[in-house]
């Protein structure tokens, strides 16, 4: 019997999680998946209960589970506490402890939302882009790090950006493999774009060289290109459809994926999977806890619901139920239902709904 641990987290986390869990329970029954759901806490909720953002019992449950579904963590309530025990550290720690080095963020435009994006419809129509972000290394985890006092009494903050060849190779392989799978499914040529700052940073020079060697030795059939991170940001809004798979380090991937989210209409639409070497994963929306709209039934639950679909596809290898969820989301959008973030006031026939109504509409479509 497989187990899914749900961690609702903070801010809009509990609201979006309620809707996503209802969807997960519905497909669990409909497709007889035999999944058992468990709950745990992470982030601010865990600080309030146990004093730390990733309590030992949560970590144990996460290790025992086959997959984890996460809402979002963080918020102003905990921003003032000591850095090492802030909510975000709990998220980084669970990623690291579970070895979830491969973060897949899919920016796919639902055609119904072509007008909800801030970009012209023709720039984004048909967009289907995968960002493969390295998640357990780079500047997020490099040592030394801290804030120190210099001899003249001034303070200095510092972090270290480090990548070993083995870390670059293993994320590179994920990107090359997925590029092949996508190319096969779409009947196109496999290609990946590796994003770096090799003109300035030695660590990303090694990144680039390692990607080239990997391509030459193991993936000669996949086209590999390279782009500096600043240009990649610009190209993403100029002509995003030039990309199929982008592979990059932890921090650049964080930034590029928020940017890519907006191409799909809203960050409230972007799901993600964070996988270990064996396909175990944590699934979460790319957005945060959105404190500005928390508790108001305004949050878009679709990124979390679509993260459930990714869980069924990647961890439980159940394509049928994953596709059923994605189809239900599409059907609800066809009906004109929109949370505020994906609303286009110039389009007729649309209706603004809250988080709860949106989730229930997806559930109804699932039947
Ligand atoms: P955010 O993603 O929470 O919010 C950015 C903007 O997008 C806000 O205006 C918000 O209202 C909107 N938004 C986000 N998700 C939405 C949704 N589902 N529906 C509608 N609108 C949505 O980013 P932020 O404001 O920079 O961060 C807020 C907190 O969340 C911080 O504490 C941050 O550290 C944390 N955070 C957590 C995660 C995570 O848990 N994975 C990710 C990013 C940020
Ligand atoms: C994300 C978030 C996290 C990150 C934060 C909250 C630690 O922005 O999941 O994208 O930077 O990885
Ligand atoms: Mn982020």
UniProtKB/TrEMBL annotation:
Gene Ontology cellular component terms for the protein in this record: cytosol
Pfam families, sorted: Iso_dh
Record Gene3D superfamilies: Isopropylmalate Dehydrogenase
Biological process, per Gene Ontology: L-leucine biosynthetic process
Pathway linked to the protein: Amino-acid biosynthesis; L-leucine biosynthesis; L-leucine from 3-methyl-2-oxobutanoate: step 3/4
Source domain of life: Bacteria
SUPFAM superfamilies xrefs: Isocitrate/Isopropylmalate dehydrogenase-like (SSF53659)
Record site: Important for catalysis: 140, 197
Top enzyme category: oxidoreductase
EC number: 1.1.1.85
Domain Isopropylmalate dehydrogenase-like: 3-362
The keyword RNA-binding belongs to this UniProt entry's keyword annotation: no
Cofactor note: Binds 1 Mg(2+) or Mn(2+) ion per subunit.
UniProt entry tagged with the keyword Membrane: no
Complexes and interactors: Homodimer.
Family: Belongs to the isocitrate and isopropylmalate dehydrogenases family. LeuB type 1 subfamily.
Protein name: 3-isopropylmalate dehydrogenase
Species in which this protein is naturally found: Psychrobacter pasteurii
């Amino acid at each position: 019997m497989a187990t899914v641990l749900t961690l609702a987290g903070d801010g809009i986390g509990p609201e979006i999680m309620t809707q996503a869990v209802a969807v997960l329970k519905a497909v669990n029954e409909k497709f007889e998946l035999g999944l058992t759901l468990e709950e745990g806490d992470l982030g601010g909720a865990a600080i309030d209960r146990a004093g730390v953002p990733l309590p030992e019992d949560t970590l144990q449950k996460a290790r025992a589970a086959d997959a984890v579904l996460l809402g979002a963590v963080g918020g102003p309530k905990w921003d003032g506490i000591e850095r090492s025990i802030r909510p975000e550290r709990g998220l980084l720690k669970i990623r690291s402890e579970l070895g979830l080095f491969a973060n897949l963020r899919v920016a796919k435009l639902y055609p119904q939302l072509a007008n909800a994006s801030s970009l012209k419809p023709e720039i984004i129509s048909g967009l289907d882009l995968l960002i493969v972000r390295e998640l357990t290394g780079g500047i997020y985890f490099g040592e030394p790090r801290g804030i120190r006092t210099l001899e003249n009494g001034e303070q200095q903050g510092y972090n270290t950006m480090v990548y070993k060849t083995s870390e670059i190779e293993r994320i590179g392989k994920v990107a090359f493999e997925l590029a092949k799978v996508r190319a096969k499914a779409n009947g196109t040529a496999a290609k990946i774009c590796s994003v770096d700052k090799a003109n300035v940073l030695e660590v990303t020079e090694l990144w680039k060289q390692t990607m080239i060697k990997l391509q030459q030795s193991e993936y000669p059939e996949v086209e590999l290109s390279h782009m500096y991170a600043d240009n990649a940001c610009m190209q993403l809004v100029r002509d995003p459809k030039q990309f199929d798979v982008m592979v990059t380090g932890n921090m650049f991937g964080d930034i590029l994926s928020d940017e890519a989210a907006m191409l799909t209409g809203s960050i409230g639409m972007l799901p993600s999977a964070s996988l270990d070497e064996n396909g175990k994963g944590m699934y979460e929306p790319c957005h945060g806890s959105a404190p500005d709209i928390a508790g108001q039934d305004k949050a878009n639950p679709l990124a979390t619901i679509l993260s459930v679909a990714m869980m069924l596809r990647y961890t439980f290898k159940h394509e049928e139920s994953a596709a059923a969820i994605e189809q239900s989301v599409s059907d609800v959008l066809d009906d004109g239902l929109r949370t505020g973030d994906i609303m286009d006031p110039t389009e007729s026939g649309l209706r603004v709904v809250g988080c709860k109504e949106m989730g229930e509409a997806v559930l109804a479509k699932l039947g």
